[in-house]
Write a structure and sequence with these properties.
Number of domains of chain B: 3
Helix content of chain A: 10-25%
CATH topology of the largest domain in chain A: Alpha-Beta Plaits
Number of helices of chain B: 8
Number of strands of chain A: 11
Order of helices and strands of chain A: HEHEEEHEEHEEHHEHEE
Largest sheet of chain B: none
Shape of chain A: elongated
Shape of chain B: rod-shaped
Number of strands of chain B: 0
Oligomer: heterodimer
Radius of gyration of chain B: 34 Å
Distance between the termini of chain A: 76 Å
CATH architecture of the largest domain in chain A: 2-Layer Sandwich
CATH class of the largest domain in chain A: Alpha Beta
Strand content of chain B: under 5%
Number of domains of chain A: 3
Strand order of the largest sheet of chain A: 9-1-11-10
Number of helices of chain A: 7
Chain lengths: ~250, ~170
């Protein structure tokens, strides 16, 4: 049988029509359920965090609260937030001694007498960078900055390649061994969108951690940022980090 | 010079192959890329709802105060007035939703020492206490009530003594 041009065109156009119809039907089937009704509007917020290091006492309540709230795997070395203790011996200020036993989840050991140099605590968490290196390297679009400035991971999309873990200059990501996907601080996005504050801020006994909505003109954070000398971690990397520290020592890396 | 179909047949076949590949790509793409991918950016919009659907566990101090205003008032004159309930008591949303759910007791002396142990490097303005020197092995609660930790007036410890209040 020899095909004429007419046959070819007819069969070809039929195929085209069928594919388009199938694709349309498939899209219809795959369409997700409508989003749950919520008054939260992503475009109206821009989240950041303020940490007053002068108030931090290294009790580790934030670490514990974070693990409980977010079902972070209950093993050492997996943290969405953790507390570091810096000790600077004034005879050798270039080499601070840093410790963080189990992320500081049970507080810190008695180790440094009051006259033995400078000691302070630095809580750390994802900086929710505006131009975050971790989202830029993701090969599958599984991690992203939301419209309201929170860096999140799509657990269904993540292929567990660990690029983002390497890319984060702050060491804020880890691979969850249960799911083999990247995991990190969500700034308690499930709480923010319900009008609550993140668990770490809620549990902090001294109020050292404060959530800030920089798009809300009534947020007291604006006043705080204006009246204090704030610093971010690794400003030279131009990540647009949004965790602002008050009283950050130059020794902190 | 008139060309027959045979002269261009190889080109048509090639074009058909390209078209078929394009169709396969289009079908595969439609099938594999979620519909909501790219609605807000280079990611699946549904991922936002996935993260938001996580159930909270911490109720928040405001919620606690709805029923326990008396405790808030007890703490008001003390240095513990701004300490979150859930810092010591742990997550309480289940209890807030259903008061029948028991609240875990804070872990006593160890709980106190998480914040108040000496020589950890806390700011000197904070109440850093050497527990043994301060009270031996007595439980903290024998003198201090956690909600209002000020020693009672008839206590032997006078206000000007305050053993743990190191300068």
């Amino acid at each position: 049988m020899t095909a004429t041009r007419r046959d070819f065109l007819v069969v070809g156009s039929r195929l085209l029509v069928m594919t388009a119809a199938t694709a349309a039907a498939l899209e219809h089937v795959l369409a997700e359920t409508p989003e749950a009704v919520s008054t939260y509007k992503t475009a109206e917020h821009w989240w950041a965090m303020i940490i007053d290091l002068d108030k931090c006492i290294g009790a580790g309540h934030c670490v514990r609260a974070c693990k409980e709230e977010n079902d972070v795997i209950d093993e050492p070395m997996f943290f969405r937030t953790w507390v570091e203790r810096y000790h600077i011996d004034m005879s050798d200020p270039d080499h601070p001694i840093v410790d963080s036993p189990n992320g500081g989840i049970d507080g810190f050991t008695e180790k440094y007498p009051e006259d033995s140099g400078k000691t302070f605590f630095v809580p750390k968490l994802c900086n929710h960078c505006k131009d975050s290196p971790c989202t830029q390297v993701c090969p599958v679009g599984a991690t992203f900055v939301t419209e309201d400035g929170v860096v999140l991971v799509d657990k269904e999309y993540c292929v567990g390649c660990r690029y983002c873990i390497q890319a984060c200059p702050y060491g804020c990501r880890y691979l969850d061994p249960r799911t083999q996907t990247a995991d990190k601080c969500t700034l308690c996005y499930h709480r923010l969108t319900r009008g609550m504050v993140p668990a770490c801020c809620e549990a902090c006994p001294t109020g050292a951690r404060q959530i800030a909505d920089l798009k809300n003109p009534k947020d007291p954070a604006h006043e705080y940022l204006r009246t204090h000398k704030m610093q971010i971690l690794k400003p030279q990397m131009a990540t647009g980090a949004k965790v602002f520290y008050n009283g950050l020592d130059g020794a902190v890396r | 010079m008139k060309r027959s179909f045979k002269d261009v047949e190889h080109l048509v076949r090639l074009a058909a192959c390209f078209l078929a590949a394009l169709l396969v790509f289009a079908i595969a793409r439609a099938a594999l890329v979620p519909k909501d991918f790219g609605r807000y950016g280079h990611y699946r919009a549904g991922a936002l709802m996935d993260v938001r659907s996580h159930p909270p566990k911490y109720a928040g101090r405001v919620r606690c105060a709805e029923c326990h205003e008396d405790v808030i008032q007890t703490a008001a004159p003390s240095r513990h007035k701004n300490v979150s309930c859930e810092a010591c008591h742990g997550p309480l949303l289940k209890h807030a939703d259903d008061p029948e759910v028991a609240v875990a007791k804070p872990d006593g002396r160890a709980g106190c020492m998480r914040c108040h142990s000496a020589r950890t490097g806390r700011p000197l303005s904070f109440l850093n206490i050497d527990a043994e020197e301060h009270s031996g092995t007595d439980p903290c609660s024998s003198c201090h009530k956690p909600h209002d930790p000020r020693p009672s007036e008839d206590d032997e410890v006078a206000a000007d003594e305050k053993p743990g209040d190191k300068k």
